[in-house]
Amino acid sequence: MYRILLGNDKTALAVLAVLAAVTVAVPLCSLLFPAGSALHFSAYTVSLLGKYMTFALLGLSLDLVWGYAGILALGHGAFFALGGYAMGMYLMRQIGERGVYGNPLLPDFMVFLNWDKLPWYWHGFDRFGFAMAMVLLAPGFLAFVFGWLAFRARVAGVYLSIMTQALTYALMLAFFRNEMGFGGNNGLTDFKDILGFNIQAEGVRAALLFISGAALIGALLGCRWLVNTKLGRVVTAIRDQESRVRFIGYRVEMYKLWIFVFAAMLAGIAGALYVPQVGIINPSEFSPLNSLEIVVWVALGGRGTLYGAIVGAVLVNFGKTVFTGLLPDAWLFVLGGAFILVTLALPDGIAGLLNRRLKERTA
Amino acid sequence: MIIKTYSTIIGLTIALLLPIGSARAEQPGIRDAYAEAVAKVGRGSMAEREQGIAALAEAGNPRSLDILRALLDGRLYQEKSTGALVIAEKNAGRFKIEEASNGADLGFAEAEAIGRINITNRIRGELRKLIGQLGLGAEDASARLAAVREMTKDPDQKTLELLQKRSAVETDQRVKRAIDLIFLVRDLDSGDKTARIRALKALQDYDSQEVVNKLNAMLEPDGEGGYAEADADIRNQAKITLHAIDTRIGLYHAAETVFFGLSLGAVLVLAAIGLAITFGVMGVINMAHGELMMLGAYTTYVIQQLLPDSLGLSIFLAIPAAFLISALAGLAIERGLIRFLYGRPLETLLATFGVSLILQQGVRSIFSPLNRSVATPSWMSGSWQINDFLSLTWNRFYILIFCLLVFTALLQILKRTRLGLEVRAVAQNRRMAKAMGIPTDRVDAMTFALGSGIAGVAGVALSQITNVGPNLGQAYIVDSFMVVVFGGVGNLFGTLVAGFSLGIANKFLEPYAGAVLAKILVLVFIILFIQKRPRGLFPQKGRAAEA
Questions:
Q1: Count of CB pairs separated by less than 8 Å, A with B
Q2: Fold exhibited by the domain B252-382+392-546
Q3: Interface pTM, i.e. ipTM
Q4: Residue A265 in this model has a pLDDT that exceeds 50
């Protein structure tokens, strides 16, 4: 068991160690040391790190589908956004009477639209447990329906990629509509409490970072275990030689479907952890560009390695934070350049580069 | 609606009246009365202006009509320095002016140098009538038709006599019908029951909003148990007539929806057709396709900035220029990027997406992130009013034609040229084609350039119906992918059929579901359709298609 989870993959171990350190040390430091101390992390930094953690989890889930099952999903952001909306709905219901219009039941935007009662699909979201179940079920269900239709019809390759893109595009258009009942253009925001704690409080921020980090580490270990099970091995075989696996007698579409649904749920968790840390969820999370960005994280980090996706997600988002602060105009040049560079020069990403170096040294 | 029709016909009328003008202007007597009248229009008091207008109509000079029309449209100005009357057309902040009395070109004038000739509402009504009467004698049938339509609103006795006279000698069916309509509507209000029934029966064949309004008013309940029209026989006949007209209106609306759908489809086809070629032949998904369209649209914008005075010419220059620029950009993408990635379609997708981001940001940095608007030449704006219930906008009409032209041209290239032959061979079986000595490398490069060039041409068309901005390409990329996927890869006719059917489906859904929901429904439909037929409407046949 230990070998499967950690193994002797030195880079993976290093990534895990760094993750564990950040997850434990940063929240602890920011709580233990007073503001102004060199070891204190500001609420901004803590939230930023927490955001990176959720992006890394999202990247990890895409790597599972793309790196291991060979499905280039260009709509993975849709699952992330659905998880985020489920969490957002819970947080909206927690606002209660503290909204601008002071309506105890209806969120502000519904009052603004002159709605007199809660739409049926908003019921139950006042309970944390139900909302958390929806964080998993909503993306999972969408992935199940879409995957079941697509994989059974043997839609594959670029066709599948385009269809996933169309899916997230259609969802974006739908969520932009006020009539959908998800806040339209503005999305869900102005959150106050989570489980009774003030969402702005430093302690809550630290806790959210810790939970995100723990979720990421758990997911990384879980995925490493998963890809080494029989299911994981069959999925990898499908990636490499789909027809051969089918001829041997495996039901290829079922394997693909389960890995797709599992990854969608992971993405949903990432979305649910993301929303309380950034304080907003709106339909632009569904935009095809966002989903493509996830792909570049994974491609840059190195697909099919799991930890590579984490490295890629953190690196690209760190770059985004730096560039949008210093040279906002240059960011798209950098991102576009990254796409080209990775596909032309680094087909195995940073992870591949590191592994080659390591091998050269040991040889 | 009448005014709209009328303004589109002005141009025609002027063109047709000019030659007669030069022949008649020889007669000195008429000319003096005319010059006197022109001068009177420009003088201070409204009373004098009114006399001048009447005299102008009497003078019988063919320019009279132009002056009266300009006056009605508020295009008649007085030069402040000389007091001469000029007809002015606003052009890029200044006014392009011509001498009112003889149409001589006077170049440009600043807004402060000229003052508009104002008229009262009463004069405006009078003007309409006079213009109608003058127009009734015009040589050109459509000018006469416009004149008759002008006179439809409460004609006085003099106008009616004029119309009756005209009807007796009129040879053009449309003009005759328009005159008949006026008299039939009058009969409707007469006291004679048989005449009214007869008029109602005859009105079944006329597409007129006025008639519909009148009939609806007749069938309105009066609030005391009866109807606005007391006579039951007449009410029945009115119902029958109204029903006949309403049925036709339904057809016109359907025709209009089909037209809008076709024009939307034409845009989709233009956007998708280049994509279909590169995807079909090379199996390459070019995510930068939308940005190549954007390049074409910006090319149009730049050419128009260089030639601000000749809009029409700039559009025609933009077509080849946009083709070249986008084709060169496409060639660069293929040579610099895609050729290293053959056989790895997913990587190609990512790399070209990187290119699209760079192109977008490049345009944003050069031209600013704001949308730029490209002006439409006058012959492309406005609409073609077929009857009161059916009008087709010209720009959409031209785009539809343009789309078909581009499609035909592309089809001919693929069918008749050597490049086309090679492209088809490579599309069917790359390795076999290579074995037969076809330089697949060169064919790939040329195909990609061709597809990209067509994207540029599509950009020119897009610049005429939407704002040109850095996100132009993104807005169309998902839609054009859908068209290609729906139509089936490697089949140009599939793209055509798919584009038009998606366009029409969208427009038929819109009234029921709204624009956004219609789009979502169409997307969902395609997602489901792909389950049934993963290779699209017209799948490519043959062994190569299995790969």
A1: 120
A2: ABC transporter involved in vitamin B12 uptake, BtuC (1.10.3470)
A3: 0.84
A4: yes
